[in-house]
């Protein structure tokens, strides 16, 4: 496993890549309303990314056909935007996207409620977000990678939710996906020791029901096997010699 340690110059470029992406997500989140199509969200996202001189890193990545992953309700990740997929009051929608700024990638995801949503859906979104912050509290130099995984699992297990095991977080830098893989569920081993200069995309994917998922016929869209709602929360994080720096938070 070759985990890259970023130089000060590289860290500055990643900070700017992530800052731009976080600003774009502010606008994307405001666009999530009943009646909008998932394709409209994708087109807005691509326009915003290109308007700041950047490139959408999801577009054509291993064949993915869009710039923004738009996943609705029981879709966990990698939902493909479509003109006929319209958001309705009470839906929840996960947006996952990244961009490339001067050769450096950023990556983040958020789950939004569409209009008024159920208390159960709101709680799922909130606790998925909270599980990220529980996990990232362990993202410190000298700790081990799976301290993050185990802390996310410990937090989520109290709610009876399912933690997706078929997909993980990842390192990030000059490539969208670098070593290491970062599970969101308990591991028996400790994993590598964290060092300042590592940049990690930490991203709990949490189902209201069971953890099991399946891929649809488009070979991209991942859905919950039991049809339950799923939420996703992701940030790009820098390991420092002190507290972790969450690069995609404004």
How many alpha or pi helices? Answer: 4
Which structural class best describes the helix and strand composition?
Answer: alpha+beta
Strand order of the largest sheet: 8-7-9-14-15
- Count of distinct strands: 15
Strand content: 15-25%
* SSE string, helices as H and strands as E: HHEEEEEHHEEEEEEEEEE
- Domain module tally: 1
Low-confidence stretches: none
CATH secondary-structure class:
Alpha Beta
Averaging pLDDT over every residue, what do you get? 98
Rg over CA atoms: 17 Å
Named CATH topology: Creatine Amidinohydrolase
Task: Tell me the CATH architecture.
Answer: Alpha-Beta Complex
**What's the end-to-end separation, in Å?**
31 Å
Name the shape in a single word: globular
The largest β sheet comes out as:
5 strands, antiparallel
Quick description:
By secondary structure, this protein is an alpha+beta fold. It has four helices and 15 strands.
What topology does this entry show?
Layout: H1 8-31, H2 38-51, E1 55-56, E2 69-72, E3 75-77, E4 92-101, E5 104-113, H3 119-136, H4 145-157, E6 162-163, E7 169-171, E8 178-182, E9 199-202, E10 205-207, E11 213-215, E12 222-224, E13 230-232, E14 235-238, E15 245-246
Antiparallel strand pairs: 1-4, 2-4, 3-12, 4-5, 6-10, 7-8, 7-9, 9-14, 10-13, 11-12, 14-15
Helix pairs in contact: 1-2, 3-4
Description:
The protein is an alpha+beta fold and 250 residues long. It has helices at residues 8-31, 38-51, 119-136, 145-157; strands at residues 55-56, 69-72, 75-77, 92-101, 104-113, 162-163, 169-171, 178-182, 199-202, 205-207, 213-215, 222-224, 230-232, 235-238, 245-246. It has one domain (8-246): Creatinase/methionine aminopeptidase superfamily (Creatine Amidinohydrolase, Alpha-Beta Complex), CATH 3.90.230.10. Helices cover 28% and strands 24% of the residues. The strands form four sheets. Strands 8-7-9-14-15 form a five-stranded antiparallel beta sheet. Strands 1, 2, 4 and 5 form a four-stranded antiparallel beta sheet that branches. Strand 4 (92-101) and strand 5 (104-113) form a beta hairpin. Helix 1 (8-31) runs antiparallel to helix 2 and helix 3 packs antiparallel against helix 4. It starts with 7 loop residues before the first helix and ends with a strand.
């Amino acid at each position: 496993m070759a985990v890259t340690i970023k130089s000060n110059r590289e860290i500055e470029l990643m900070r700017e890549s992530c800052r731009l992406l976080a600003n774009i997500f502010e606008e994307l989140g405001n666009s999530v309303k009943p009646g909008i199509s998932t394709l409209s969200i994708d087109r807005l996202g691509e326009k915003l990314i290109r308007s700041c001189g950047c490139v959408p890193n999801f577009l054509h990545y291993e064949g993915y056909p869009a710039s923004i992953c738009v996943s609705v309700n029981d879709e966990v990740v990698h939902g493909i935007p479509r003109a006929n997929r319209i958001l309705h009051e009470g839906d929840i929608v996960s947006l996952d996207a990244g961009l490339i700024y001067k050769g450096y990638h950023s990556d983040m995801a958020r789950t939004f409620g569409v209009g008024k949503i159920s208390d159960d859906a709101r709680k799922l979104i909130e606790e998925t977000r909270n599980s990220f912050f529980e996990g990232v509290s362990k993202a410190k130099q000298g700790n081990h990678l799976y301290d993050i995984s185990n802390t996310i699992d410990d937090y989520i297990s109290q709610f009876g939710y399912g933690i997706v095991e078929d997909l993980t977080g990842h390192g990030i830098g000059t490539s969208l996906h670098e070593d290491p893989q970062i599970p969101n569920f308990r591991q028996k081993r400790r994993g590598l020791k964290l060092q300042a200069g590592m940049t990690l995309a930490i991203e709990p994917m949490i189902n209201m029901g069971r953890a099991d998922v399946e891929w649809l016929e488009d070979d991209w869209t991942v859905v919950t096997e039991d049809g339950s709602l799923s939420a996703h929360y992701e940030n790009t994080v820098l390991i420092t010699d002190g507290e972790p720096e969450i690069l995609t938070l404004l």
